[in-house]
Amino acid sequence: MYAEESAVGGDRPFGGMARRHRLAAMLRPELPSLVDELVREIRGALPDYQRLGRAHGVILRRRVEYLAKLFVDLVEHPQSAGEAAGKTCRALGRVEGHAGRTLDSLHAAFRIGGRVGWRRIARVGRRRGLSTEDVSWLADQLFAFLDELCARSTQGYRQGAVTDADRDRRRRLLHLVLRRPSVSPFVIDELAATAGWVVPDQCALVALDGGRYLPRAPALGPDVLADLRGPVPCMLLPGPVTTERIQRLCLPFRGTHLAIGPTVALAEAASSLRWARQALRLVAEGVLPDVPVTVCAEHYSTLWLLADPGLLRQVARRRLAPFARFPVKQRSRLADTLFAWLQAQGNAREAAARLSVHPRTVRYRMRQIETAFGAGLRDPDVRFEIESALRALHVLNVSCDA
């Protein structure tokens, strides 16, 4: 793609600058419709591109737009566009290598692009009355361009290819990091050096819904450890995890629920995964919102509160027992009142506003509650347990008499 090593960049017999500017000016108005045609032909002919979801379809279109514009830029200014072109094409190959795919589909897309591009050059030539020399020169530039695309992407692919042995080594490394009791850091460092993985100070574990289809070898980046084959698939991301990283992570797992655990020291990776799996379970049960990616840091109180359902039931049974003396229809109303009153720190007016009732109603109900609960409502520890039990009922959307 560089001026000194590419036919596109070379000064061919008919490649004077005036001619370059003139031909590039003829081709630029064709780019929008050409991109439409290229995307349509590629997706129609190649199964790998037919299955693309919306997000990956957008990425395909952007790549096609870039390469089509790049060809015209190289026609007009071979030297200024050459270096960026080489880097981009190598990057395309590295993506395929990291993803564990072959270059067959990418190179087939290049060949389709060549056919479509040649048809468009011939059409423009007839419409604009180009000379045979002009059309021949553009054809030379196009096929040299395609040769460079294949060569550079192959270079990038070889740099980025991840073998099955590499993936197995990284999978073992992930399980070593998660093992309890923990293994020696020296063992982890030794295997990490073999796997080419930089050991981070912090990490966040990602739990994935194992019941959904997961890609065999998605492009995750060299700093990610993953096991997507086990019954409880997971990944390790070096921390801290940014919003941009989360957005990129969603692309290969479209249609799958992910939960990202807290960012912790590497030695605490198993705890991060435990919380991520807890969050995924609460999503499945309808307790947490049904969104593609659940970030544990946004739901700490709920995760903590529901961490031990058995113990929570014991606390609720013990601390909410006084409600049993009221009629069934009255229990939920009184429980809601007590919860609002505790949240308002005993302020009847604020509790009434939360419940959309008159303050006198809150005071009347609280007299009934205080009679039933007795001195326990004045004990800080008891009040904490009562509020925790009521908060859990509220989160679970379960009534007091359930």
Automatic annotation (TrEMBL):
InterPro entries in UniProt: CdaR-like_regulators, PucR-like_N, PucR_C-HTH_dom, PucR_C-HTH_sf
PucR C-terminal helix-turn-helix domain boundaries: 334-392
PucR-like N-terminal domain span: 22-177
Pfam families reported for this sequence: HTH_30, PucR-like_N
Full protein name: PucR C-terminal helix-turn-helix domain-containing protein
Source organism (scientific name): Amycolatopsis taiwanensis
